[in-house]
Amino acid sequence: MEPTPEQSPHHAYPDHWEADVVLRDGGTARIRPITTDDAERLVSFYEQVSDESKYYRFFAPYPRLSDRDVHRFTHHDYVDRVGLAVTIGGEFIGTVRYDRINDQGRPASAPADEAEVAFLVQDAHQGRGVASALLEHIAAVARERGIRRFAAEVLPANNKMIKVFRDGGYTQRRSFEDGSVHLTLDLEPTEKSLAVQRGREQRAEARSVQRLLAPGSVAVIGTGRTPGGVGRTVLRNLLASGYTGRTYAVNRAFDEGMTTLDGVPAHRSLGEIDEQVDLAVIAVPAHRVPEAVADCGEHGVQGLVVLSAGYAERGAEGRGLQRELVRQARSYGMRIIGPNAFGIINTAESVRLNASLAPESPARGRIGLFTQSGAIGIALLSGLHRRGAGLSSFISAGNRADVSGNDFLQYSFEDPDTDVALLYLESLGNPRKFTRLARRTAAVKPVVVVKGARHSGSTPPGHAVPVSRIPDATVSALMRQAGVIRVDTVTEMVDAGLLLAGQPLPAGPRVAILGNSESLGLLSYDACLAEGLRPRPPIDLTTAASPQDFRDALAEALADGTCDAVIVTAIPWVGENGEAETGDGEVLAAALHKAVAGGAAKPVAVVHVEIGGLAEALAAASSTAAPRPRTVTPAADRTRAAAASPQAGITPAPSTGPAPGTDPAAPGAPEASPAPETGPGRIPAYPAAERAVRALAEAVKYAQWRRQAAVPGKIPEFLDDTIDEPGAAALIEAQLATAPDPRGRPLTHDEARELLGRYGITVRPTLPAPDPEAAVAAAARLGYPVALKTTAPHLRHRADLGGVRLDVADEEALRRAYGELTDLLGKPAELLPVVQAMAPRGVDTVVRASIDAAAGAVLSFGLAGAPSELLGDTAHRLVPATDRDAAELIRSIRAAPVLFGWRGSTPVDTAALEELLLRLSRLVDDHPEVVSVALEPVVVAPHGLTVLGASVRLAPPPARSDLGPRRLPNY
Questions:
Q1: Residues with Cβ < 8 Å from 801, sequence gap 6 or more?
Q2: Which residues neighbour 10 within 8 Å (Cβ) at sequence distance 6 or greater?
Q3: Which among 328, 892, 908, 915 has the fewest CB atoms less than 10 Å away?
Q4: Phi and psi at residue 191, in whole multiples of 5°?
């Protein structure tokens, strides 16, 4: 929408206020500012509002709007008077307006910071969350315009509107005056308002996916008249899957007399169908898709699966077509899977939907699968089918123009039919939101991710995503922090998914190995050690072992309190005639099933070689066994052991809290439900020891994360007494005000020291030494021994190039070192030498924090020096970091033993290091203008630490989409 000449050019039309939102029932709507062009829409909208709703809005009968009313409600300055409308199909279904007022309640301008607000929603759309969405958006607009409070007068009988204000989560005050309820809302976001907003977002987005996966009726648009073709294939698959709803074939090229196709009603358009159509699968050429979408929107279709190609994967022109497709669909309240999608599947008995190109619908199971690639989707469906695994749902999103992996996580979180969520992602449209949703979902069920296109510049065509500067290793670390099980290949994804869907979580890393192959046992043992597990010596049952021997040995291992998981290795055993028995896999599987059914709840995995029918028999759930809990609660002494790092000599992080099997304390967490499809006795089988052990290792790490997530870390209160947040804010404001570049600037050494000092981070001072005399004077001031080092950018932190002289004991040694430095590396003006007092000996480390526009603020830690840089041995955590995050951060690098007394050295003060990490995290969290900080080196001694160097950069903070009102992304 464009501004009209009547609107002040000083306050141009704020197009950034436009947003697509998902309503409570899963449908979409558009929120935008009201303009003078909306007069007819406003009048039409008002005519469809009931007399009761009009009375509640105006406190009197108000059957129609006068011309003066229409002018008032459509002319805004977008500062002191603002109106927003919710539209579907271009027509208003709800409005909200604020007018800035002064202390006497009269119209005012800034600096008045209060506004009167009023809502009106069509009766047909009440209960869909329209007013709640409007409140979020009008509150954000008001804050942007300097308004801090809303005032509203509501009739006592208008319970719905009172509930909207009450449930918003904002701080509010209520009073009863002159027969109405007077409400005042403080618009500053609170923890409660943000939680309410995210809770509504979760329920709405989950519902939008549920509507796509469980439609009551499906129309395939573009169904061919002859066998073959995409549309006809989808129709055939729908019928073969036993879909429980109504199915229609639609093609404008059908003959007028044609009434059925493949036994289902055939129509030339949706308008010919007398009943509601919930889902449309579009399989027509790209140039005909807009016509099909319009037909769907005008006839009330709720969602679309667009199989058609020819969009963003074709370049700039295709990207434009894709954006227009999304705009068109959302304008009608529809969500889209695709374009260029492979389709969707829902195996629930009440649905049995296969609206995809997959020729065979998978068995019903407990695994949810989302993929951005049709080819990978085919491979995953095939791999899971071969391994005997079933699915609960499947979405192949293609170009992912609308429905994304984030939406799938919202759905999976509360879907009672899904125990494990598998995602193949080639791009992350909103990394911050993905991390948040993944953490919440992982607290109740495993999330396994393969990230394709991991390297810069390799984002697939058609996936428009925010640019992120952080490397893939950092993305992986942040996923781990959120509880995501990230694997490298789709094979590893299937391996992990099978174990997590069919077995309980392990209580710790201790593994028993048994079987009839000594070699397979040793391979499993070695693989366990390589993955950081703690295997017991393998038990060799010998090649003469019978299925009963396997059953007895497995039952004994499950009863043993000193192991947390069991790996069974099996090769064809030798029969009484001395020949290898290869076809009795069912017999062995039955024996293992019986042992598992009667044993303790521990994960069991089988490694086998050439035993016919074993994998299939193991994948079949026992129908007679009692259900096994999906998670276990270990003894208290084992909980602490399981939480400790497997690296020798490393002190474990703080107590990990309850084990999996207990309530993870996630708000709104769905309760686990039994699953006959993957129930008792479903044991995963692997053709190689390494694959089984890797899957088990991922389960161990995930179980440990679950225990820790049950008792979240905290930000120590002692930090509040030693942090000067207002002082730091004043410094930042002053320094940015003088920055010659609006993009910000780096701070000088002294400026950085002052800012960091406000947060209790002391940086050892350095004094410039432009000549030998200045160096001597500086050393006299600081006191010997000193360090002489260069600060030129190309030599900074490069001791290996000879730019640092340590333990300079006196003036003679200092003058000699100065001469050597300048003779070797260049003139003082080029080297920029400085003198610094020596710090106590310790371990040199590096602490950094930076803000990435896509992922948010990231805290990083590693040891200083070339080896760590070459090996990429750096750990990362999202900000704000808790005490648990800080403890884990320093323990998660491979070189961590150096900090804890490696090879007899003195352990350093890791508690001081953790405190430094927390202080830096707090700084960048409190002040997003601090876009990067590097503390290098930080020398950690046995007692205390010393920050020898610091660099800080300030810049206007990047916009944070995760803190604003709910809105769908526009890719």
A1: 795, 825
A2: none
A3: 328
A4: -60, -40
Mapped onto helix, strand or coil, the DSSP state of residue 606 is: strand
Element (H, E) at 329: helix 316-331
Residue 354 near residue 241, CB atoms below 8 Å: yes
The DSSP call for residue 392 is E
Give the 3-state secondary structure of 330-353.
HHCCCEEECCCCCEEEECCCCCCE
Query: Please, which residues bridge with residue 660 across strands?
Result: 662
With CA atoms as reference, report the closest residue to 319 among 465, 144, 448, 101.
465
d(CA 603, CA 592): 12
Taking phi over 0 as left and psi of -120 to 50 as alpha, with beta for the rest, 187 belongs to alpha
Q: Are 410 and 402 in contact (CB under 8 A)?
A: no
H or E element that contains 519: helix 518-530
Does 461 or 76 have the greater pLDDT score? 76
Is 346:393 a contact under the CB 8 Å cutoff? Answer: yes
Distance between CA atoms of residues 228 and 239, nearest Å? 15
Cβ-proximal residues to 890 (8 Å cutoff; 6+ apart), any chain: 861, 875, 896, 899, 910, 913, 914, 917
pLDDT of residue 356: 95
Supply the DSSP string of 238-251, one letter for each residue. HHHTT--SEEEEE-
Cα 815 to its chain centre, rounded Å, is 56
Could you tell me the pLDDT band of residue 616, with boundaries at 50, 70 and 90?
confident
Q: Which of 763, 805, 718 is nearest to 950 (CA)?
A: 763
The span from the CA of 90 to the CA of 95, in Å, is 13
Query: 324: how many CB neighbours lie within 10 A of its CB?
Result: 14
Strands 149-154 and 180-186: antiparallel
Q: How many CB atoms lie within 10 A of CB 964?
A: 16
Give the mean pLDDT of 633-645. Answer: 35
| Distance separating alpha carbons of residues 563 and 527, to the nearest angstrom | 17
Burial class (CB in 10 A: 0-12, 13-18, 19+), 734: exposed
Task: Give the angle 40-41-42 at the CA atoms, nearest 5°.
Answer: 90
Give dist(CA 193, CA 212) in Å, integer: 29
More confident residue, 478 or 142: 142
255 Cβ contact partners less than 8 Å away, ≥ 6 residues apart = none
Q: Where are the alpha helices (DSSP H) in 560-607?
A: 585-598
Report CA-CA distances (Å) from 549 to 524, 540, 570, 620: 20, 11, 12, 21
Q: With beta carbons less than 8 A apart as the criterion, state whether 390 and 366 touch.
A: yes
DSSP letter string, 862-912 = EESSHHHHHHT-EEEEESSP-HHHHHHHHHSSTTGGGGGTGGGPPPP-HHH
**Strand pairing partners for 174?**
183
* pLDDT tens digits, one per residue of 24-35: 999 999 999 999
Helix axes 490-502, 374-386, angle to 10 degrees: 50
| Helix, strand, coil percentages, rounded to 5, for the chain | 40, 20, 40
DSSP label of 300: T
CA-based max dimension of the chain: 107
Q: What is the 3-state secondary structure (H, E, C) of 205-237?
A: HHHHHHHHHCCCEEEEECCCCCCCCHHHHHHHH
Q: Checking DSSP bridges between strand 685-686 and strand 786-790, what pairing results, if any?
A: unpaired
Strands (E), 347-474: 353-356, 364-371, 391-396, 420-425, 447-451
Residue 168, Cβ neighbours under 10 Å: how many?
23
Cβ-contact 623, 874 below 8 angstroms: no
What's the pTM value of the predicted model, to 2 decimals?
0.84
Say if residue 678's pLDDT is above 50.
no
Residues with Cβ within 8 Å of 780's Cβ and at least 6 positions away in sequence, in order, are 811
